[in-house]
């Protein structure tokens, strides 16, 4: 997992250790994380921990008629600053897996394997092992093999206790089973899947709000319901396992037309990306009540929940656009997996209604998709 590759320095007095790189600490980190990593690996993973490349046997894809590979890469962002402030690093790994692997299931793919990258100012073996253990637990939960990674020590570039994490994953899907905007039809129902909290987006705004209010992550707050930083570190909900199982149910074959992971860009933009051009949806705010963490942060900032709709998920971590006649069955299937699910709108391909004072958001991130706007007021 951590490749400690050091070039010997001959007879020179300078050493890698004197430059601030501790290869022995790196080796110790590898030993501490080995068991957690190996628990994610089935017989498809070849070779052991510490190689230059991970090997994954894809013979199973021979059973596919037309296999397509899906890939995604991402990081956790500035949420890491809160983990560092609390010296609590056991949930960041799940955040990483959620940001990476949950993007793969959006196209209907089943994840196969993942790699991670950790950059730090100083290798603290126990801290690195804790981060990787979190990654491994989440990989196991999503059916993803953790086949390799790298931990790089960057003294002088990063502070001794600074680190950042990133990852990439690969999945597979049958070509005729790829989900997307082209499957969406007039009358489809848009289902919302509940988030566990902030997930891993919008933390630059969170940190700005708290700093402006003079609040520390270690402060205990009745409004937040505990230590502020611990509440904010609630890990990202993992949707991949439940959704893969729902998509595999024969009685629901073809019922799910598109999926959207609500990450950076917020609610409307991420839904618009998986709708066809010429379609539109009005998302009904009254169908759910944003969790207290969103309300408290907005109150501290002196702003409305509506103003954060392009930054935070406000309680919706995923959307599923499904055939109207199957909406109840899909809802029941997802809720049986432990995720609260409810309808928030209906897809229309009729003429776009007068925007009035509330403009539609059309497409996002280079995708020329449908139009979405949020209407009404949030439930209390």
For the terminal residues, how far apart are their CA atoms? 47 Å
CATH architectural arrangement of the largest domain: Alpha-Beta Complex
Number of domains: 2
Beta strands, count = 15
H/E topology pattern: HEEEHHEHEEEHEEHHEHEHEHEEE
CATH class value of the largest domain: Alpha Beta
Which whole number gives the mean pLDDT?
Answer: 90
Proportion of residues in β-strands: 15-25%
The outline comes out as: globular
Our Rg estimate from Cα atoms comes to 22 Å
Number of helices: 10
Note poorly predicted spans.
1-13
**Order of strands in the sheet with most strands:** 3-6-4-5
Structural class: alpha+beta
Return the CATH topology of the largest domain: Phosphoribosyl-aminoimidazole Synthetase, Chain A, domain 2
Q: Major β-sheet, in short?
A: 4 strands, mixed
Superfamily (CATH H level) name of the largest domain? PurM-like C-terminal domain
Helix coverage percent of residues? 25-40%
Structural overview:
The protein is α+β, with helices and mostly antiparallel strands. It folds into 2 domains: 23-177, 60s Ribosomal Protein L30, Chain: A (2-Layer Sandwich), CATH 3.30.1330; 181-375, Phosphoribosyl-aminoimidazole Synthetase, Chain A, domain 2. Helix content is 27%, strand content 24%. The protein has helices at residues 23-38, 80-86, 92-104, 125-142, 203-212, 228-232, 240-247, 266-272, 292-301, 327-336; strands at residues 45-46, 55-56, 67-75, 110-120, 145-153, 163-174, 189-194, 220-221, 226-227, 256-261, 280-284, 316-322, 341-346, 361-364, 367-375. The longest helix has 18 residues, at 125-142. The protein is globular, with a radius of gyration of 22 Å. Residues 1-13 have low confidence and may be disordered. InterPro entries: PurM-like_C_dom (IPR010918), PurM-like_C_sf (IPR036676), PurM-like_N (IPR016188), PurM-like_N_sf (IPR036921), PurM_cligase (IPR004733). It comes from Herbiconiux moechotypicola. Residues 69-173 form the PurM-like N-terminal domain. It is an enzyme of class 6 (ligase).
């Amino acid at each position: 997992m951590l490749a400690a590759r050091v070039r010997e320095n001959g007879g020179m007095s300078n050493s890698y250790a004197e430059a601030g790189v501790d290869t022995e600490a790196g080796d110790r980190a590898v030993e501490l994380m080995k068991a957690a990593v190996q628990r994610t690996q089935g017989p498809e993973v070849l070779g052991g921990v510490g190689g230059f490349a991970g090997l994954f046997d894809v013979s199973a894809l021979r059973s596919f008629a037309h296999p397509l590979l899906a890939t995604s890469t991402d990081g956790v962002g500035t949420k890491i600053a809160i983990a560092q402030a609390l010296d609590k690093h056991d949930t960041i790994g799940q955040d990483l897996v959620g940001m990476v692997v949950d993007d793969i299931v959006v196209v209907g793919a089943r994840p196969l394997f993942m790699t991670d990258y950790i950059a730090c100012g100083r290798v603290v073996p126990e801290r690195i092992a804790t981060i990787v253990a979190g990654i491994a637990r989440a990989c196991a939960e999503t059916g993803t093999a953790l086949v390799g990674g790298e931990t790089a020590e960057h003294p002088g570039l990063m502070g001794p206790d600074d680190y950042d994490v990133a990852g990439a994953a690969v999945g597979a899907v049958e070509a005729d089973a790829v989900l997307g905007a082209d499957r969406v039809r007039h009358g489809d129902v848009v289902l919302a899947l509940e988030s566990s909290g902030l997930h891993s987006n919008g933390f630059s705004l969170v940190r700005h709000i708290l700093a402006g209010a003079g609040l520390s992550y270690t402060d205990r707050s009745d409004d937040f319901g505990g230590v502020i930083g611990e509440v904010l570190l609630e890990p990202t909900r993992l949707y991949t396992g439940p959704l893969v199982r729902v998509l595999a149910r024969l009685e629901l074959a073809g019922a799910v037309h598109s999926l959207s992971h609500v990450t950076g860009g917020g609610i409307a933009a991420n839904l618009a990306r998986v709708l066809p051009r010429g379609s539109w949806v009005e998302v009904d705010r009254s169908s759910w009540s944003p969790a207290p963490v969103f309300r408290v942060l907005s109150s501290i900032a002196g702003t409305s929940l509506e103003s954060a709709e392009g930054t935070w998920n406000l309680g919706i971590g995923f959307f599923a656009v499904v055939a109207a006649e199957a909406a109840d069955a899909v809802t029941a299937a997802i809720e049986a997996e432990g995720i609260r699910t409810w309808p928030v709108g209906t897809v229309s391909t009729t003429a776009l209604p007068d925007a009035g004072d509330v403009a539609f958001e059309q497409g996002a991130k280079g995708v020329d998709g449908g139009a979405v706007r949020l209407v009404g007021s949030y439930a209390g």
